[in-house]
Design a protein that fits this description.
alpha/beta; 434 Repressor (Amino-terminal Domain); 5 strands
């Protein structure tokens, strides 16, 4: 750096032209003289000083030879200035896009710590737009609509109330972010079938024991499994989807899960991966405990999950089961599943009321992710 630039502390938001003017003043040069030394017209130098034209690589090299410092110094000044201008323009766009926030479940996104847990004022909305665009990984609300809003064409719903696209997209995105952190081999169907048999044997275990083992077994088969706190407005208990041609994802919510609901949801989603891999563009949004499955795919997934938990070989024994704690527990031990699963199946088939005291045989889950 020349003596004229030593000790100079530029405002990185100002255009490089301000530094040029400072050096010109120290050397007592006018723009015509500097333009001549640089080989520019006076008009071009004037536009450069005012930031109306970009400072090019060639101009940076000329300034290095005439004024000193380095070409990199001048180019960095230019880059910082252009970035600042772009951010100012972006802030204006964010203000114009605040209406997009009405489509999103802001209260639930606060709970998920996606956005600050603060009162949403008019002044804060443009900052929220920027933060939520980053969360979804899109550049604008139009891009969000293309990536997520229009995704509903691929939704395969089990509930008519699954219509809040903003809530569903938010929950799906939370799962995508978790899934992005998992590196797995390509999907292997045979390994997944074996993994599901092994996982069924874990239904009697507590969550802290079976949950990491489930992840590992699914992962070894190339299936990503993520547990994501529920967003109630989405009315989704689980989802099965393909992130790409080789990577299936099972995403399960953590909202109000008793073990019968959790295990049925998991095996229901697994069934979609196993049975409906030809429909890789489809996103199966499931709440099998509250929905009415009208599609053939949902009926198939329901039946497969039911048979996985209580195999058809035990159907006759199950049909004769008296709804008592002793008989349910003995039957569950015989087929090696948790008795809460048997209670849930009896309730689903109308053989046992949902308000029964036998609900005590179920186990309520609370996963570590809820505290994160």
């Amino acid at each position: 750096m020349t003596n004229q630039l030593k000790g100079f502390k530029p405002d990185w938001v100002s255009p490089p032209g301000e530094t040029i003017l400072d050096v010109m003043e120290e050397r007592d040069w006018n723009q015509a003289e500097l333009a001549q030394r640089l080989g520019f017209s006076t008009k071009h130098l004037n536009q450069l000083v005012k930031g109306k034209v970009a400072l090019t690589d060639d101009a940076a090299l000329r300034l290095e030879r005439v004024l000193g410092s380095t070409a990199n110094f001048w180019l960095n000044r230019e880059a910082k200035y252009r970035e600042h201008l772009a951010r100012i323009e972006a802030q204006e766009r964010y203000k114009a896009w605040t209406g997009w926030l009405d489509q999103l479940p802001l209260a639930e996104l606060k709970k998920a710590k996606v956005i600050p847990d603060e009162r949403i004022t008019s002044a804060a909305k443009s900052a929220l737009v920027e933060k939520l665009l980053s969360f979804f990984g899109v550049a604008s609300p139009d891009s969000w609509q293309t990536q997520y809003g229009d995704m509903q064409a691929s939704f395969r719903r089990t509930r008519e109330t699954q219509s809040d696209v903003g809530a569903i997209a938010s929950w799906l995105r939370l799962g995508e972010i978790k899934a992005e952190q998992i590196e797995l081999p390509k999907y292997n169907r045979a390994k997944f079938i074996k993994a599901l048999d092994d996982i069924r044997e874990m239904t009697t275990q507590p969550p802290q024991q079976f949950e990491p083992a489930m992840r590992q077994l699914c992962g070894e088969a190339g299936v990503k499994l993520v547990l994501v706190p529920a967003i109630p407005k989405s009315h989704v208990s689980g989802v099965a989807r393909w992130l790409n041609r080789h990577t299936p994802l099972i995403q399960i919510s953590l909202y109000g899960k008793t073990n019968d609901k959790f295990w049925f949801t998991f095996f229901h989603e697994a069934a979609h991966i196993l049975l409906h891999a030809d429909s890789k563009a489809d996103i199966f949004l499931d709440d099998p405990n509250h929905g009415t499955a009208d599609s053939e795919q949902e009926h198939e997934a329901n039946q497969w999950a039911s048979d996985q938990l209580i195999p058809p070989a035990f159907a006759f024994e199950f049909s004769r089961l008296e709804p008592t704690a002793s008989q349910i527990t003995a039957f569950a031990e015989n087929i090696n599943v948790h008795p809460g699963i048997v209670v849930g199946r009896l309730q689903h088939e109308g053989k046992l009321g949902y308000a029964t005291q036998l609900n005590r045989l179920k186990q309520s889950f609370r996963f570590v992710e809820e505290d994160k």
